[in-house]
Write a structure and sequence with these properties.
It is a single chain. By secondary structure, this protein is mostly beta strands. Helices cover 7% and strands 38% of the residues. The chain has 2 helices and 13 strands, in the order ββαββββββββαβββ. It has helices at residues 21-24, 108-113; strands at 3-5, 10-12, 31-35, 42-46, 51-57, 60-65, 70-74, 87-89, 96-97, 102-107, 120-124, 139-140, 145-148. It has an 8-stranded antiparallel β-sheet, with no helix packed on it. A hairpin with a 2-residue loop joins β5 and β6 (60-65). The model has no long low-confidence stretch (mean pLDDT 96).
């Protein structure tokens, strides 16, 4: 089994807590989500699994787990509209990363100032909706286990 860790600190809200139907209805795959604390102004976003950076955008990335599926981390909702403003990437597409390695940094205050939610979905791509079944209603620190594959 592969441990998938929280990319950011916050409350685990699950798909139902994501203000976007693509993630809420798990159209890309089963998953969960973390809501950063309201007073957090910045977050270093960690790789949820060890693997290869298969896709990288300022606001989102996919890590293909060693011997496993792609894990999408999307930082905020509709944050693509920021055009990369408020985000700094620390890796490149094709890089090998360890679980818990910094992938990007986000200015959460800028995300909120733009009227966007900082909610951070973590999705097992192409898995059935409801397949992750991660517990919700608790707080995690970045690097804590969210669920197992």
């Amino acid at each position: 089994m592969t441990s998938v860790v929280a990319p950011v600190d916050g409350a685990v809200v699950g798909p139902a807590g994501v203000p976007d139907p693509v993630f809420r209805d798990e159209l890309l795959g089963g998953g969960t989500a973390v809501e950063p604390p309201a007073d957090a102004t910045e977050a270093v976003v960690l790789a949820p699994v060890a693997g290869t950076v298969a896709a990288l955008h300022p606001h989102a990335f996919v890590i293909t787990a060693d011997g496993g599926p792609g894990i999408l981390v999307h930082v905020g909702i509709d944050t693509v509209s920021l055009g990369g403003a408020g985000f700094t990437t620390h890796v490149a597409k094709g890089d090998a990363v360890e679980r818990g390695a910094p992938v990007l940094t986000v200015d959460l205050a800028a995300v909120r100032a733009a009227g966007l939610a900082p909610t951070c979905p973590v999705v097992v791509l192409d898995s059935p909706a409801g397949s992750v079944g991660a517990p919700t209603g608790h707080t995690v620190r970045a690097g804590d286990e969210l669920f197992r594959l």
